[in-house]
Design goal:
With 328 residues, this protein is an all-alpha fold. The chain contains 16 helices and no strands.
Length: 328
């Protein structure tokens, strides 16, 4: 888990470089997995075995992407305590939009796994030689004189075992399967790149802020996130040392101000963009509102903070705000 966090920490610095690094890391893992762990059984389990190796690691990487996303836990933490609000259609739609944005980022690693696995072809060969679709098996065996025998022994082809089918025929079948697998792999890569380009273009086209302000906003979000982690750790250490000192020396504790539960809740909600203000994060909004000298203005703005539990109308280009990372 620490290695994954290290890679994702580097990847978060820049989206293009980061996603490329995740894809490269996933591709290396697939190559090692395929050469060291994968052994096609060459029996009736071929289809299930190949399918598991192709999809289950991708599912695990997808779940890991959800687990390591800050937005996932911002969305879920305390959600069961707000069930009455959640039942409103608008809030459900907002949660669905946020979940979609999280999924598009989390899909990088599993998509890379499947694409590289298809380009490699080992999983696909094992999977397709175990199919029970007679029409497909007949297509693989072609117009051979021993077509029936070929279909019957098709599951043994990946292992190269002794067979009544000539070796040249077995190799032709495996070459056909590998070609099909690589075609699917390159098609998947093209679809991923095209989808990423279209989503990025749409997000940029609908951006409510200029290019330079967006660059500043990203830099602020990244700096706030990293500073928040270090400052919170420092404050926690001071509070722990104060309590331990007071306990062991039996002296009254020093006064250390710590935010209340309500304060933590206000800065932990998902960011909600509004054209009526210029806040760059929920923390920025809280600080500006909390210390507003005008009581009426404070009451009005605090209502705005409470309404930001869901980010149903956020522009897609501002997804980096809750993650605290640079984006494309």
């Amino acid at each position: 888990m620490d290695k994954f966090k290290t890679v994702l920490g580097i990847a978060s610095k820049q989206s293009n470089f980061g996603f490329g690094l995740i894809a490269l890391f996933t591709a290396g893992g697939e190559q090692m997995f395929s050469s060291v762990v994968f052994r096609c059984p060459c029996n009736e389990l071929n289809f299930l075995y190949g399918l598991v190796f192709l999809l289950v690691p991708a599912l695990a990487l997808l779940l890991l992407g959800y687990i390591l996303s800050k937005r996932t836990w911002k969305l879920l933490t305390g959600l069961c305590q707000r069930r009455a609000k959640l039942c409103r259609w608008r809030r459900l739609a907002g949660c669905g939009v946020v979940l979609f944005h999280i999924t598009t980022t989390a899909m990088v690693a599993p998509s890379s796994w499947i694409a590289v696995a298809l380009l490699n072809g080992n999983f696909f060969e094992c999977l397709m030689t175990g199919t029970n679709v007679s029409a497909y098996n007949k297509h693989l065996c072609g117009d051979l004189n021993s077509e029936v025998q070929c279909q019957r022994e098709l599951h043994t082809f990946p292992c190269g075992r002794a067979s009544s089918i000539p070796q040249a025929v077995r190799e032709d079948v495996l070459f056909t399967l590998r070609a099909q697998s690589q075609i699917l792999g390159w098609t998947l890569i093209a679809l991923i790149m095209l989808s990423n380009l279209l989503l990025t273009c749409v997000a940029r086209c609908t951006s409510p802020v200029s290019y330079k302000q967006l660059q500043f906003w990203r830099a602020y979000a990244e700096e706030e996130s990293s500073s928040m982690d270090s400052y919170a750790a420092k404050h926690a250490k001071e509070l722990a040392e104060r309590n331990l000192k007071s306990f062991f020396k039996q002296t009254p504790p020093e006064n250390i101000v710590t935010p209340s539960n309500r304060d933590w809740e206000k800065i932990s909600s998902l960011y909600k963009f509004s054209t009526k203000d210029h806040y760059y994060s929920t923390l920025h909004r809280y600080v500006e509102n909390c210390h507003d000298a005008d009581a009426d203005s404070t009451a009005m703005r605090m209502a705005s903070v409470r309404s930001s539990d869901t980010a149903d109308n956020n522009p897609a280009v501002l997804n980096f705000v809750d993650d605290g990372r640079m984006a494309l």
